Amino acid sequence: MPTHLPTALARLSDNLFLWSPPLSDTWGLANCLLIAGPSAVLVDTPYDRPMSRALLAAAEQVLPHGSRIDTVVNTHANGDHSYGNAFFPGSEIISTHASLEHLCAEPTPQQMHHLSQNLPADDPLGWYMALHFSRFQYADTETTPPTKTFTGTLQLEAGDTKVELIEVGPAHTAGDLIVHLPEDGVVCAGDIAFSEDHPVHWNGPLDHVAKACEKILSLDCPTIVPGHGPVMDRTGLRTHLDYLRELEGLIHERYARGLTASEAAADILDSGFHTHLGLSERVVILAAVEYRHLSGDTSSPDLVRLARGAAEWAFTRRDTVSLPRPRGAQLHTQAE
After folding, report:
1. pLDDT at 266 > cutoff 80
2. CA angle, corner 49, sides to 44 and 54, nearest 5?
C-alpha cells in the first residue's frame, strides 16, 4: 500500500476514530474524523478514490455491524477535504452556505489532474505540482457539492454523541466550520490549524484565522484535530496562534515599508522564520493573501495563481527545498 495511506483508524475515544495520513511537508493529506455509531458521521473526506476506499475499509473494522456513514461534514471546500464526497453515495453532505458558494473558486479534479500530470517539468508550477500532487488519482473523481448548508451553528447527533458545527469563516477559505464534540473534549479544526508544516490560507485575513483559533480555545477542549498533521493540545494551538499573530505583524510591517508581497515573503523567510516547519513556500501565499486585504482587493482569489507564486519561490531553491517526510521526521532536502 502507498506510504501516504493509513491502514487503520486511530482511536481518540470510545466512538471517535482518526484517519491521519502519515506524511508531513507535503499537500493533500488531510485528517478525517469518524464519529462511530448506528448512523456514523465523517468529518471531511479524502482526496481521491484510493484514499477513500482505504478509509472505508478501515472504518468497517470499527463501525458497529450494519452501521454506515450516513452524514459527511465538510469543514471547507478545498478538494483535499471534499473530493472524496463522491465515494460516499447516499450520505447527506453538510457544509456552510458560504462553503458551497466557494466551490466556484476551487480547482476541479480535472484541473488538478492537468496541473499535476501535464505541465512541463521545467515550469515551476509543473515541477511543484508533480512533486506534491502526482500521487493522487483525480481522473475518476467528480466534485460532489453539499446537500445541506447552514449559517451560524448547526446541532447534530451521531448516536449518543452530540455534535455542534460552528461557522468560523471567512478565514482559511470563505466558508470554514469547526466541529465541536463537547462530551469528548474534542474540536475538529479543519484547516484553521496546521501541525508540523507552515499553514496555508486562501481567503484570510490572518486576523480572521487567529480569531477562529481563539474561538476553538474558548471551547476549552483538551484535544484539537488540525486539518493536517498530528493531533494538538491547547498549548499546541496557542503556539500556532502565536505564529499567526507574529506573521501578521511581519507582513504588515513590510507592507508599510512599501515592499511587494513577494519581496515581503522572501525577506521573512530569509530571516529564518520558523525553519523547523515544512513547506516554507506557503509563506509566499500567506503574504499575497494578506496584501490583498491590506490593499482593499475584494475580488475572488485565484488559487492557481497563488500556488504558482509559492512554486516559483520553491523552484529557485529546488536543490535545498524540503521534501515529503514521515510524521515527526527531521526536514530533509534534495541536496542531502
Report:
1. yes
2. 75
DSSP 110-167: HHHHHHHHTS-TTSHHHHHHHHHHTTS--TT------SEEESSEEEEEETTEEEEEEE
Percent of the chain predicted with pLDDT > 70: 97
Report how far apart, in Å, the C-alpha atoms of 212 and of each of 14, 44, 53, 208 are: 28, 18, 32, 6
Residue pointed to by grid coordinates 452524514: 71
Measured in degrees and rounded to the nearest 5, phi and psi for residue 201 equal -135, 130
Contacts of 277 (CB under 8 A, 6+ apart): 196, 197, 198
Q: What's the CA gap between 132 and 137, in Å, rounded?
A: 12
- The answer to whether 287 and 268 have CB atoms below 8 angstroms apart is yes
Q: Kind and range of the H or E element at 17?
A: strand 16-19
Give the three-class secondary structure for 53.
Answer: helix
Distance CA 6, CA 22 (A): 7
The length of the chain is: 336
Q: pLDDT tens digits for 71-86?
A: 999 999 999 999 999 9
Q: Assess whether pLDDT exceeds 70 at residue 171.
A: yes
DSSP state of 66: T
Q: Which long-range contacts (CB under 8 A, 24 or more apart) does 277-280 make?
A: 277/196, 277/197, 277/198, 278/24, 278/25, 278/26, 278/196, 278/197, 278/198, 278/322, 278/325, 278/331, 279/25, 279/26, 279/27, 279/197, 279/198, 279/200, 279/322, 280/198, 280/322
